[in-house]
Amino acid sequence: MNLSRFLREVLLKSGTKVVCEEGDCGSCTVLVGEPDKNANTLNYKMINSCIAPVYSLDGMHIITIEGLSDAKELTEVQEKIACHGGSQCGYCTPGIVMALTALNENKVHYKNEAIKSYLTGNLCRCTGYLPIIESGLAVDAAKMKPINEIYANPQLILDLKETQAEPILLEHNPITYFAPTSLTQALKYKAAHNDVSVVSGFTDIGVEQNKKDILRTKLLSLHRIKGLKKHKQVGDFYSAGPKTTISDIETEYRKIFPDFCRYLNIFASPQIKNRATLIGNIANGSPISDTLPFLYILDAELEITSLKGKRSAKVKDVFKGYRQLDLENDEAITAVKFPKKFEHKKFFLYKISKRRDLDIATVTAAFFLSLNKNSNIILDLRVAFGGIGPMIMRFEDLEHEAKGCEFNNEFIEGIINKVLTRITPISDVRGSREFRERLVINLLKKFFIEASPI
């Protein structure tokens, strides 16, 4: 059962609404608190409860709309939405209240851009958003009581920590779910079960179950293994573990790879990014992955671990076909490694989709360019596209040929012609083959314009 259904049908907490059941509309938004490893407190993040299986939230504290106050008076956010007409039909309002409350929990100021960013995962068809934004701008953060103060209970935190320290083996026909507390346990289990799916944030699996009637029955989760969320420096790389979410990447790498982090603004809503992991996005193997083109041109590497030891492989070398990874049955991806030599460099990253926020890409692209300081002569050019074939494509032979060439209109036209002869886009609901080819042409031209020295 997903959390939203459990809340509504079992606990009869009907304040949490359900509309899309695929993490798009945000009406099901709740706050999830996890124990802070360094403090006697809980860290709260908003998530979509409609795609979060209940079993994946064991050892966490769930706050629904009913839990924000004692029901005798409105919270500061609720009061401002009421006063400024931020709710009409009211169906989306609980999720919007939770999203605006999350601003305060994450110590973000109630400013226009922050409010818009936190509401990208909340769909409202009635108000046109202006009254909602005005409601958020009117919130007095000083009157907001943090959730940790509302539920100031040291025993609760202790109980949750003790619960999270225990492994889970859930067997309930047809589901088998194993959440070990050590990597060795996980690797042994994976080696013994050929058809197990390694999971973390469940953002894909929840949608599959709700919309495609695909029920994965053997699941292995790494979320209880300590140390797998660490961002650290290892030699010539920055390393992010398998529990590192997209939100974590935005926070940890904002100064290191600013262009990538800005690009992640349109990866998905905050609710999704708080659960979805970078390694999950990689292992999904989608040819329209938002992150893979950047990782391809970065020459990012994967740390792959088995019971026999560890090996490293470049991200671009791990894929051998449509959603097919070169991994043995006893292997798991345990880190993504970003080369330090590219920190603070300029990247050109693009995602074309039917709407700007919270949508699946039609075509993605990533470019890197280094020119001689005294001329337009190319020292290093890197080009990768997604959505134009069964896998992400990087054109390394063309990159090699580009070295020493002048970066001008003639060069770009030549690159365009060569790229078009190598791609194999298909027609589907997100765009025709011809449309994708036109996007490739236009994105290369856009890159040339934006990358050319003034």
List keywords for this structure.
454 residues; DNA polymerase, domain 1; Uridine Diphospho-n-acetylenolpyruvylglucosamine Reductase, domain 2; Uridine Diphospho-n-acetylenolpyruvylglucosamine Reductase, domain 3; 4 domains; 5-stranded antiparallel beta sheet; 4-stranded mixed beta sheet; globular
From the helix content, strand content and strand pairing, which structural class follows?
A: alpha+beta
Describe the largest sheet: 5 strands, antiparallel
Global outline: globular
Q: What is the fourth-level CATH superfamily of the largest domain?
A: [2Fe-2S]-binding domain
Q: Supply the number of helical segments.
A: 18
Approximate helicity band: 25-40%
CATH architecture of the largest domain: Orthogonal Bundle
Counted beta strands: 18
Roughly how many Å is the radius of gyration?
Answer: 23 Å
Low-pLDDT parts are none
Classify the fold: give the CATH topology of the largest domain: DNA polymerase, domain 1
Our estimate of the beta-strand percent is: 15-25%
The domain tally reads: 4
How many angstroms does the end-to-end distance come to? 56 Å
Output the CATH class name of the largest domain. Answer: Mainly Alpha
